[in-house]
Structure formats: C-alpha cells, structure tokens
Amino acid sequence: MEFALIQTPSDFDALATDWNALLAVSFANVPFLRHEYLRAWWSALGGGEWPRGELAIVAATENGQLAGLAPLFLTDNRDGQPALMLLGSLEISDYLDLIVRPNDLPAFLGGLLDFLVSSGPSSWRALDWYNLPETSPTLPLLRAETGKRGWVFTQENFRPAISVPLPGDFDVYLSGIDKKQRHEIRRKMRRIHEFGLAVRWYIVEDEAALEAEIDGFLALMANDPAKAAFLTEAMRAQMRASVQAAFRAGWLQLAFLTVNGEKAAGYLNFDYDNRIWVYNSGIDNKYLELSPGWVLLGYLLEWANENKRAEVDFMRGNEDYKYRFGGVGRWVVRAKMVRS
Fold first, then answer.
1. In which order are the strands placed within the sheet that holds 152-165?
2. CB proximity list for 338: less than 8 A, separation 6 or greater
3. Predicted pLDDT of residue 245
4. Same domain membership, residue 304 and residue 278
5. Lower Cβ count inside 10 Å, N or C end of the chain?
C-alpha cells in the first residue's frame, strides 16, 4: 500500500466518490463515516466542539485504487495532548472507525502507524479514538500493533449504545418485548386518536420544505432545557448542514407527528444500510398528555418493520425508553495510544 497525507479541504472534497464506495464495502459502514457527513462536520469542527484542528486524513492506495482511509485530524485532546483524533469526535457522531475492507485491515493499520511516525504531522503525541464499537476488529489489532512498537495502549468503555433487532413484522416485534411495555405502546398509539383531534405522521420528502422542517425540528428540540443549551448557534449550523447533507445523499429520515396541524413530536433519524439510526428527537410539551414521542416512535418502528429494515439503532445513551422498546445494550469505547 502507498500512503498519502490529506491536509486541505479541496483534497478532502476530491475523495468523495471513492470514499463512499470504499465505505460501502468496509467493515464499518455507518452514516457517521460518509464523506458528506464528515465534510459537514469538519466545516464547523463538530458545531464548535473543538476550537482548532488540522486535517490529517491518511489515504492508502493499492494498484491505483483507494484501499484504506484513516479520517483523522490533529488537535489538543481532552487530556491536553496534541493528538490525532477521528473526524467526527466525539459528542455528535455516535460510531467512528477506520474505513477499509476487512481483509485489508491488518496491512492498512500496520502501514498507517508506520506512516504516521515517519510522515504524519510532526507534533502528535497520541492517537485518541472515541466511539469505536466494542466489536470493532480495529481494537485487537491496535493493541497488538502498538504493543510491537512499545507504545502505551488503553481501552475504556465510553458510552452505552442500544439497538433493537427487527423481525420484519410489527406484531411479531411487539410480541418479543416485555408484555407490560407491549400493551403500553399499543395503548398510547390507540389513545391519541380518541381525543377527536386530527393526528397524522409523515416523513419529510419535499426538498422545498426542508429548511422549514429543520426549523420546526430544532424548535421541538429546544423545548428540552438540556437540548436548548446544547443548541448553540454553531451547533444549530452544524446540525442543519448534517441534515441537508443526509437529505441530498438520500439517507435522511426526518419524521413528525402533528396534532391539529401543529408539530407535536419529531425524530431526526438516518435511514442507511438497511437500518434506522435514531439521532435526536423533540416534543412540544403542551402535548405531553398524548405521549407524542412514544406514538411517533411506535409508528416509525412499524414503518421500519414493514419496510424490512434489520434494526433500529438508538445509538449512544442508556435512556430507559430504549430498553422499554426492546433495546439490547452494548458499548462504544475509547482507544488511546501514546507513542514512546
């Protein structure tokens, strides 16, 4: 493999087609590694999460074809060390990893570490990679490769991540979760229609309406005080750019439940690689009595089953409702390597 360092946005842009083609056959085909998502993330450094950063993407080619990508940037990590971190780190991108075919990973990773020492940015002290799934094949290879070099390797659980496998039939799905919760979901989905209100739900498909729909979703999010604090001006711009990128690429699922024509609940999801990735949500508190968030999630789970999605991934966070809807827990981890 031949390795090259990508340090300019224009060179990052030039990789778009080959980047996404490689991701599609990699072991880590997640929406947060799509070129359009990471390019939007880089435009605002994660909505201002990082005050500074320098692109340090490493691309490997073999026989003239893109064979591996390490989507990296240089910044000072949370420990105050100059570190090479994964693009997307760390708060708003739930899953991250290297982009490479499974069979090519050992050669790519070994070559990557050698290249970073010899030809990477001169000031880096650590590789500090968050949000790697606990089952990622990158992790044992990192431990082995860093051990060969005498570097210090540490791995820790960072955040829980919850997902729901789907059988392809909503009734079968419901029969597989706790009996009490099954009845509660059905009761709330039925009860909302007993108030004589006009209730509907929909997935945004009209590009001309997208900006207004994004505004509506951000307004729902801001009803939660914690989310309102999260939605700084920079973060609003970041989320808008991410939603627009996902819509243009065809994997956005922005859904709303309306009551008498008003948005009562919204879910910002990604419909990608035969899975629904639940990214964020919001509700109008004046409709709390109707449980609009639960109802909309019920409709989305019904839709996902009917459309034969394999899984609904609630992603990071161990909120109780995720388990009530049949979620199964796992971890994303932080792997840190300090070179000698």
1. 54-55, 72-76, 82-86, 126-133, 328-338, 152-165, 311-316, 275-283, 262-272, 252-259, 199-203
2. 81, 125, 126, 151, 152
3. 98
4. yes
5. C
Domain assignment present for 319: no
Print the domain residue range for 59: 2-159+332-338
The radius of gyration of the chain's CA atoms, rounded to the nearest angstrom, is 21
- Residues 15 and 70 sit within 8 Å (Cβ to Cβ): no
Give the end-to-end CA distance of the chain in Å, rounded to a whole number: 25
Confidence at 340, pLDDT banded by 50, 70, 90: confident
Question: Which two three-digit tokens encode residue 108?
Answer: 């790519």
Percent of all residues in the chain with a pLDDT value above 90, rounded to a whole number: 99
**How would you label 260-287 residue by residue, b for 16+ Cβ within 10 Å and e otherwise?**
eeebbbbbbbbbbeebbbbbbbbbbeeb
Looking at residue 126, its amino acid is A
Helices (H) and strands (E) in the chain, counts: 13, 15
Residue among 251, 291, 266, 244 nearest 43 (CA): 244
Per-residue pLDDT at 121 exceeds 90: yes
Amino acid at 320: D
